[in-house]
Amino acid sequence: MSRDKLWWYLALPQLLLDEQLSLQSEIQRQQPQVLCRSDGQRARTVVQANTAARHAGVKLGMAEVTASTLVPELQQRTYDEQREEQVLQRLAQWLHQDIAQIALYPPQGLLLEVDDLQRLYGDYAGVQRQLARRLARVAVGYQIAAGYSPLVARILAQVPQLSFEPMRAAKSELLEKLRQVPLRFALLPAAQQQQLENVGIQCLGDLLQLPVGELGARFGRAMVAYVAELQGELLPPQRYYRPPLKFSERLDLMTEVASWQQLLFPLRRLLQQLEAFLQSRQLSVVRFTLLAHHRDQSQTPVRIAFALPLWRQREMQQLVQLQLERQQLATPALELSLRADAFQAREVTATSWLPAQQDATAQRAEQQQLQALLGKLQARLGTAAVQQAQAQNDWRPEAAQQWQTDLQTAKAPSQGLPRPLWLLPEPEAIAVHEWQLQWGPERIQTGWWDGEGVLRDYFIAVDALDRQGWIFRSHEEWYLHGWFS
């Protein structure tokens, strides 16, 4: 049986408090905590409360003074709507991995267009399972409702006693539940709600029974458009969320933190968000910057670089942890942020039954494993402690390569001519009669342009101990420059 197109709405009634609780230890989360605000006219009131506070008798809308008197150990913080909107954007970015069409309703709501996802996940039940798995990883409390229009989904998500399974909702069922909704949940401006109550309308069912002409005459065109949305006859366009081109996120640590090691737990949340950003764009990150923000508005930056482009949170966490073990904070941090703009497109590795292509795939896998090992060594020992040879366009052996810490672009020296694996720091004078020449000469005459020109004839030779060396003659003098074995 065909169904009407559905929108889902996620109502997140205490999103900011959930974010703060997720950054605390298990013992801290058990303490009663509330967020309070004032509208400028009245005393501060409770707008969000955790489970421990509610069990102790704290209710939403209760005066802050009353709540603190009722629960002396109550932890009170100021509600910040702007911060909650930032958390909402982070959640949208997290869900964008699965759902492309997400509209933000700040500060506590997300509208999801999920109708087309049925083909990917089988049906609405499959979409809901995937959504539940994704939300379980961010530890946020939510209420979800379906609607045949965005407005209907938003209204039903506010009424817990009318909750039901979204994948089973048909328009007739939704409309019947909508008629039962009290007018206080109608999402109408206060003035319009008061007008309706003055004429005896107590629920949306009463409103839907009125003729459209009477609605327009008594309450204006805005009310006519509102009822058309309730009936699904009018669907206003939505402004869908699009991930930013660069990644920049910031977390409030709630209390001062004195070391980078203590920041590893909140850092996991930032890396989780970075993984979602990279996954939605099919990118990997090469490097990023961590910043600890202090009470005096100063910042302590730590630049993190990877030998191999990464995108998974667990892989980044391991390397970042190794690098932070060598760092110290001069002063405690109140906030932590992560900024990244150095990305690479992911390379698709295709398998093949052809032997030659299988060998190439195996070589790439071995190279990636080697780069991953080098990345861990750099993270543990420091970037300068692990270096790789980079070939240079110079015929002088001592200038033919240089050592660099960038392990991604390094190339092995050319193997076109025989060269020793061990080159001495400086050539050593030798007596040529003690050597037996095996191969040569190879003349190298270059470097005249920089004042360090050379004129040498190189030979491969064996000494009295059967060691194979690389020797050369310059101005009738003989020197040993390296060893082959």
From TrEMBL:
Gene source species: Pseudidiomarina halophila
Name of the protein described by the UniProt record: UmuC domain-containing protein
Span of domain UmuC: 27-157
Alphabetical list of Pfam families matching this protein: IMS
Family from the record: Belongs to the DNA polymerase type-Y family.
Keyword set, alphabetical order: DNA damage
Gene Ontology BP, a term: DNA repair
Transmembrane domains' residue ranges: none
